[in-house]
């Protein structure tokens, strides 16, 4: 009888170990499936950093095309006008990036970037940029005047009760 009791304890112990192993394996599979793809070198900020560098380069080159490209918008009257406004304010000043801090507070496909740059005359630019990754490409959220799609209306922004 002692032999049989020992076998039952071994079976029970083995069954518990198997359950824990299956649970741990399932947790790893779920965590891997839910994580967003990183850049090829495994650094989720690499592409975001390059997008900000492209933004600074477009400013320095006074390139509306470069701003529209890094902003992920089509070349249209509204986007060209908005790019020209940005360039009138900050373009062609020989910016060099002094510091760039990237945070992924809202997930791996959204980044906030704190940028510190200095122009050729020594003036400082401090800016916080929002970046989004769509289909593997990081875009700087520069453009706010995108017209509503045909048949869609922008959301109302009135206060309740007014």
Could you explain the architecture of this structure?
The chain has 162 residues and is an alpha+beta fold. The chain has a domain at 46-140: Nuclear Transport Factor 2, Chain: A (Roll), CATH 3.10.450. Helices cover 44% and strands 20% of the residues. The chain has a 4-stranded antiparallel beta sheet with strand order 1-2-3-4. β3 and β4 form a beta hairpin. α2 runs antiparallel to α3 (64-71) and α3 (64-71) packs across α4. It is elongated and about 90 Å long. Mean pLDDT is 79; it is low at 21-41.
What is the count of DSSP helices, taking H or I runs of 4+ residues? Answer: 4
Q: Give me the count of strands.
A: 4
CATH second-level architecture of one domain: Roll
Q: What structural class do the secondary elements suggest?
A: alpha+beta
The major beta sheet can be summarized as: 4 strands, antiparallel
**Fold-level CATH name of one domain:** Nuclear Transport Factor 2, Chain: A
Report low-confidence residues grouped into runs of 5 or more: 21-41
Rg calculated over all Cα atoms: 26 Å
H-E string: HHHHEEEE
What CATH first level of one domain would be assigned? Alpha Beta
Q: What is the distance, rounded to the nearest whole angstrom, between the alpha carbons of the first and last residues?
A: 83 Å
Bulk shape: elongated
Organism: Streptomyces griseorubens
InterPro entries: NTF2-like_dom_sf
Protein name: Lipoprotein
């Amino acid at each position: 009888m002692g032999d049989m009791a020992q076998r039952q304890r071994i079976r029970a112990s083995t069954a518990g170990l198997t359950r824990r192993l299956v649970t741990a394996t399932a947790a790893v599979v779920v965590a891997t499936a839910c994580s967003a793809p990183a850049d090829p070198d495994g650094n989720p900020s690499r592409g975001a950093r390059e997008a900000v560098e492209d933004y600074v380069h477009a400013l320095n080159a006074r390139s509306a095309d470069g701003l529209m490209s890094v902003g992920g918008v089509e070349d249209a009257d509204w986007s060209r006008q908005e790019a020209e406004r940005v360039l009138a304010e900050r373009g062609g000043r020989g910016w060099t990036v002094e510091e760039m801090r990237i945070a992924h507070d809202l997930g791996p496909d959204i980044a906030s970037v704190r940028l510190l740059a200095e122009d050729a005359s020594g003036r400082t630019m401090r800016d916080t940029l929002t970046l989004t990754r769509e289909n593997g490409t990081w875009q700087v959220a520069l453009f706010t005047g995108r017209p509503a799609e045909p048949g869609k209306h922008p959301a109302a922004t009135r206060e309740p009760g007014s």
